[in-house]
Amino acid sequence: MKTFLDITLVVTSVLLVLLVLLHRAKGGGLSSLFGGGVQSSAAGSTVVERNLDRLTVFTGMIWFIAIIGIGLEIKFA
């Protein structure tokens, strides 16, 4: 179980870093490298940002659960 939680923590940590870098800041961000800078319509960019937000929150929750699981395993093992 510890190995599974450790692997989950590493994978979600790397994924969170990448997802946060993909978010669009005031000046653009790395999402503009992948076509986010060219906005054909306002609705299309908000859908992409909304989905990116959801994916980031979901990944953050998995990361948080892995942290809690590792902490509980350390405390009770």
The strand count comes to 0
Which ranges are low-confidence, i.e. pLDDT below 50, for 5 or more consecutive residues? none
* Average predicted confidence as pLDDT: 83
β content, as a range?
A: under 5%
What best-fitting shape do the alpha-carbon axes yield? elongated
Count of individual helical segments: 2
Keywords: Cell membrane, Membrane, Protein transport, Translocation, Transmembrane, Transmembrane helix, Transport
Transmembrane segments: 55-74
Function: Involved in protein export. Participates in an early event of protein translocation.
Pfam families: SecG (PF03840)
What does this structure look like?
The chain is mainly α and 77 residues long. The chain contains 2 helices and no strands. The protein has helices spanning 2-22, 42-76. The longest helix is centred in the last third of the chain and has 35 residues, at 42-76. The model has no long low-confidence stretch (mean pLDDT 83). The chain crosses the membrane at residues 55-74. It is found in: Cell membrane; Membrane.
